[in-house]
Task: inverse folding
């Protein structure tokens, strides 16, 4: 999962126009491919940091799908975001091996430390926009659990103290 976050665009109309332009370029490259929806969503999110609600209908039209089909895929897969991510993206593994080694307590600690609460397996952004915290299911580090990812960097054998140190190194104070 990319934690790419584009530069801040202060004008909402300009941001919306930019999102539509990016989406149109992605559709031009991919709409002809069989099963193009997931690749289109991945590419749009990679470029924009999320899949804005304002481009869902555009994607549906470009792929000859209903808005409900596109929205359903975005909300079904936890990877996709409809809102811009925080400046830093933190993912906590919730797979069985990590849970057995304390991932639930680590996630609770991360929620307290970052000031955001995940609901129903979906990520949440801190009020100040510094962090997005998201549960993920299996990072492939089962032998070194619990594992987390901070801004696309894997960290194994995570403890609350190590977590706090890593967050402190980001220069952010949630």
Result:
């Amino acid at each position: 999962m990319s934690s790419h976050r584009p530069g801040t665009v202060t004008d909402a109309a300009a941001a919306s126009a930019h999102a539509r332009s990016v989406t149109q370029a992605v559709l031009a490259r991919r709409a002809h491919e069989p099963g193009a929806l997931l690749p289109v969503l991945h590419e749009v999110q990679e470029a924009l940091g999320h899949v804005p609600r304002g481009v869902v209908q555009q994607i549906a039209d470009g792929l000859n799908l209903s808005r409900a089909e596109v929205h359903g895929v975005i909300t079904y897969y936890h990877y996709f975001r409809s809102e811009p991510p925080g400046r830093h993206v933190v993912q906590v593994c919730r797979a069985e091996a990590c849970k057995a080694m304390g991932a639930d307590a680590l996630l609770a600690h991360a929620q307290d430390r970052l000031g955001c609460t995940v609901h129903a397996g979906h990520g949440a952004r801190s009020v100040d926009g510094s962090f997005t915290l998201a549960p993920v299911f299996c990072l492939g580090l089962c032998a070194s659990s619990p594992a987390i990812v901070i801004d696309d960097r894997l960290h194994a054998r995570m403890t609350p103290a190590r977590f706090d140190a890593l967050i402190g190194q980001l220069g952010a104070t949630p």
The chain has a mean pLDDT of 90. Residues 12-76 form one domain. The two ends are 23 Å apart (CA to CA).
